[in-house]
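lol forgot to send this yesterday, sorry. struct tokens for the thing we talked abt
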């Protein structure tokens, strides 16, 4: 089934497109955790970019996605230095729901920010503090729905790591997307019925319940 992001621009790409609209060369992007069709979705919405994906595995990427990756960087889950990108530098670094799957996430973030060019953009998303108390749902709504979540991120620690790495933070708070919020509202009656039957809500409710926190900034 096609992902909604193929038809409705994801929050991260909408923000990156806005912040880079005056960039006069193709963006060089490093996407940490590049599964779930991120390569084709990124190129669909951002156009001509050089896309490097870094991950511990290839996760739910189709042959089309694999063709869209200009460089795939396979790393160990224990790697904190990311020597594979030692001599690479990027206009954009994306960490979309990956730091909650990492041990030592702030050390990894600090090391990755050395690969961000001056004037470059870093974008992160991760579960909000309130996600620990949300109802359970298909996919993930409560932080503990996903057994691969091994670290509960702190917005304060993320922001401080960015500040100490010379990044001017532009926003840190709840994710926002009006259309996805409206879609979630429409789904609520079905979600309530599904919870009565199965004990779980359906997918598509992140923006209604405030599951996601985002932080982004520009390197000085």
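and heres what i got for the seq, position by position
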């Amino acid at each position: 089934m096609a992902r909604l992001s193929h038809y409705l621009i994801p929050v991260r790409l909408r923000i990156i497109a806005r912040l880079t609209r005056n960039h006069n060369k193709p963006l060089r992007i490093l996407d940490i955790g590049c599964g779930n069709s991120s390569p084709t979705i990124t190129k669909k919405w951002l156009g001509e970019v050089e896309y490097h994906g870094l991950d511990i595995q290839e996760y739910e990427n189709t042959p089309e996605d694999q063709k869209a990756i200009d460089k795939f960087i396979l790393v160990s889950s224990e790697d904190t230095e990311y020597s594979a990108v030692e001599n690479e530098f990027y206009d954009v670094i994306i960490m979309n729901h990956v730091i909650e799957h990492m041990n030592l996430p702030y050390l990894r973030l600090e090391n990755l920010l050395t690969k961000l060019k001056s004037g470059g953009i870093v974008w992160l998303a991760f579960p909000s503090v309130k996600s620990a108390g949300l109802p359970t749902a298909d996919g993930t709504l409560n932080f503990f729905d996903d057994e691969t979540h091994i670290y509960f991120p702190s917005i304060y620690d993320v922001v401080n790591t960015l500040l100490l790495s010379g990044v001017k933070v532009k926003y840190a708070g709840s994710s926002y997307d009006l259309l996805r919020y409206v879609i979630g509202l429409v789904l609520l009656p079905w979600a309530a019925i599904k919870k009565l039957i199965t004990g779980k809500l359906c997918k598509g409710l992140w923006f209604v319940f405030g599951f996601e926190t985002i932080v982004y900034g520009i390197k000085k």
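DSSP finds seven helices and seven strands in the chain. anyway ping me if u want another try
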